[in-house]
Amino acid sequence: TIMVTYGGLLSLLMDPHDHTGDRCAQILVAILIVMIGLQQDLGLGKIQYLIWFDYFNIVQIAILLIALAETMWVHRLVQRGEDGKAATTDRVLLLLLTLGVYPVVLA
Protein backbone atom coordinates (compact mmCIF):
# COMPACT_ATOMS: atom_id res chain seq x y z
CA THR A 1 0.00 0.00 0.00
CA ILE A 2 2.99 2.28 0.32
CA MET A 3 3.54 2.16 -3.44
CA VAL A 4 -0.15 2.86 -4.05
CA THR A 5 0.00 5.91 -1.80
CA TYR A 6 3.12 7.20 -3.51
CA GLY A 7 1.40 6.61 -6.85
CA GLY A 8 -1.44 8.81 -5.68
CA LEU A 9 0.95 11.46 -4.40
CA LEU A 10 2.93 11.45 -7.64
CA SER A 11 -0.21 12.57 -9.45
CA LEU A 12 0.68 15.98 -8.03
CA LEU A 13 3.42 16.10 -10.67
CA MET A 14 0.76 16.56 -13.35
CA ASP A 15 0.18 20.09 -14.57
CA PRO A 16 -2.78 21.61 -12.69
CA HIS A 17 -3.83 23.67 -15.72
CA ASP A 18 -4.66 20.67 -17.88
CA HIS A 19 -4.95 17.58 -15.72
CA THR A 20 -6.98 18.44 -12.63
CA GLY A 21 -9.52 15.70 -13.29
CA ASP A 22 -6.78 13.14 -13.87
CA ARG A 23 -5.04 14.17 -10.67
CA CYS A 24 -8.24 13.81 -8.64
CA ALA A 25 -9.05 10.47 -10.28
CA GLN A 26 -5.62 9.02 -9.54
CA ILE A 27 -5.78 10.12 -5.90
CA LEU A 28 -9.31 8.72 -5.51
CA VAL A 29 -8.28 5.37 -7.04
CA ALA A 30 -5.36 5.22 -4.60
CA ILE A 31 -7.77 5.91 -1.72
CA LEU A 32 -10.07 3.13 -2.92
CA ILE A 33 -7.20 0.64 -3.18
CA VAL A 34 -6.05 1.48 0.36
CA MET A 35 -9.64 1.07 1.58
CA ILE A 36 -9.75 -2.40 0.02
CA GLY A 37 -6.59 -3.16 2.00
CA LEU A 38 -8.43 -2.15 5.17
CA GLN A 39 -11.02 -4.86 4.51
CA GLN A 40 -8.62 -7.76 4.03
CA ASP A 41 -8.66 -10.60 6.51
CA LEU A 42 -5.38 -10.90 8.39
CA GLY A 43 -6.29 -14.29 9.84
CA LEU A 44 -6.41 -13.05 13.41
CA GLY A 45 -10.05 -13.87 14.05
CA LYS A 46 -12.49 -11.32 15.43
CA ILE A 47 -10.72 -8.32 16.92
CA GLN A 48 -12.71 -5.62 18.69
CA TYR A 49 -10.06 -2.91 18.36
CA LEU A 50 -7.80 -1.39 15.74
CA ILE A 51 -4.35 -2.86 15.20
CA TRP A 52 -1.26 -1.13 13.77
CA PHE A 53 -2.20 -2.12 10.22
CA ASP A 54 -5.54 -0.33 10.52
CA TYR A 55 -3.91 2.84 11.86
CA PHE A 56 -1.34 2.66 9.07
CA ASN A 57 -4.03 2.51 6.39
CA ILE A 58 -6.06 5.28 8.01
CA VAL A 59 -3.00 7.55 8.01
CA GLN A 60 -2.41 6.74 4.34
CA ILE A 61 -5.99 7.69 3.53
CA ALA A 62 -5.56 10.94 5.47
CA ILE A 63 -2.38 11.80 3.50
CA LEU A 64 -4.20 11.11 0.23
CA LEU A 65 -7.16 13.25 1.33
CA ILE A 66 -4.74 16.11 2.05
CA ALA A 67 -3.36 15.68 -1.47
CA LEU A 68 -6.90 15.71 -2.89
CA ALA A 69 -7.74 18.90 -0.99
CA GLU A 70 -4.50 20.47 -2.26
CA THR A 71 -5.42 19.53 -5.83
CA MET A 72 -8.83 21.17 -5.50
CA TRP A 73 -7.29 24.28 -3.91
CA VAL A 74 -4.73 24.62 -6.71
CA HIS A 75 -7.50 24.17 -9.28
CA ARG A 76 -9.43 26.97 -7.61
CA LEU A 77 -6.36 29.22 -7.75
CA VAL A 78 -5.88 28.44 -11.44
CA GLN A 79 -9.52 29.26 -12.16
CA ARG A 80 -9.12 32.60 -10.39
CA GLY A 81 -6.13 33.41 -12.58
CA GLU A 82 -3.55 33.22 -9.79
CA ASP A 83 -1.16 30.99 -11.74
CA GLY A 84 1.98 31.96 -9.84
CA LYS A 85 0.42 31.26 -6.48
CA ALA A 86 -1.04 27.99 -7.80
CA ALA A 87 2.32 26.78 -9.13
CA THR A 88 4.12 27.70 -5.91
CA THR A 89 1.50 26.02 -3.72
CA ASP A 90 1.55 22.94 -5.92
CA ARG A 91 5.33 22.48 -5.86
CA VAL A 92 5.76 23.25 -2.16
CA LEU A 93 3.04 20.82 -1.09
CA LEU A 94 4.29 18.17 -3.53
CA LEU A 95 7.74 18.28 -1.95
CA LEU A 96 6.32 18.57 1.56
CA LEU A 97 4.02 15.56 1.18
CA THR A 98 6.30 13.23 -0.80
CA LEU A 99 9.62 14.02 0.89
CA GLY A 100 8.56 15.36 4.28
CA VAL A 101 5.27 14.31 5.84
CA TYR A 102 4.74 10.85 4.36
CA PRO A 103 8.25 9.44 5.02
CA VAL A 104 8.09 10.74 8.61
CA VAL A 105 4.72 9.06 9.08
CA LEU A 106 6.14 5.79 7.77
CA ALA A 107 9.02 5.83 10.24
Order of helices and strands: HHHH
Q: Structural class of the helix and strand makeup?
A: mainly alpha
- CA-CA gap between termini: 15 Å
User: How would a textbook summarize the main sheet?
Assistant: none
Beta content: under 5%
What does this structure look like?
This protein has 107 residues and is mainly alpha-helical. The chain has 4 helices and no strands. It has helices spanning 2-9, 20-38, 52-80, 83-106. α1 packs antiparallel against α2 and α1 runs parallel beside α3 (52-80). The model has no long low-confidence stretch (mean pLDDT 86).
List the keywords.
single chain, 107 residues, mainly alpha, 4 helices
In short:
The chain is mainly alpha-helical and 107 residues long. It has helices at residues 2-9, 20-38, 52-80, 83-106.
Secondary structure layout:
Layout: H1 2-9, H2 20-38, H3 52-80, H4 83-106
Helix pairs in contact: 1-2, 1-3, 2-3, 3-4
